[in-house]
Amino acid sequence: MDWDDLRYFLKVAETGGLSPAGRFLCVNASTVGRHIESLEEALGRRLFVRTQHGYGLTEAGERL
Questions:
Q1: Count of CB atoms situated within 10 Å of the CB of 2
Q2: What's the CA angle centered on 10, arms 53 and 20, to 5 degrees?
Q3: Which of 1, 21, 27, 35 is geometrically suited to a Cys-Cys bond with 12, CB 3.0 to 4.6 A?
């Protein structure tokens, strides 16, 4: 697991989306998305529920 991915995870959890997290972290949304995918793959679990209204934490995301 890349510890930097956790920083992205926390910001998406805090802001509810890739774009707002990217603005805060000064990167584009696709970069944030790649970090989230990398973390989910490393953990073997979905961390977010993706909806038209943004990103919400799954049970695994809450535990993390």
A1: 11
A2: 45
A3: 21
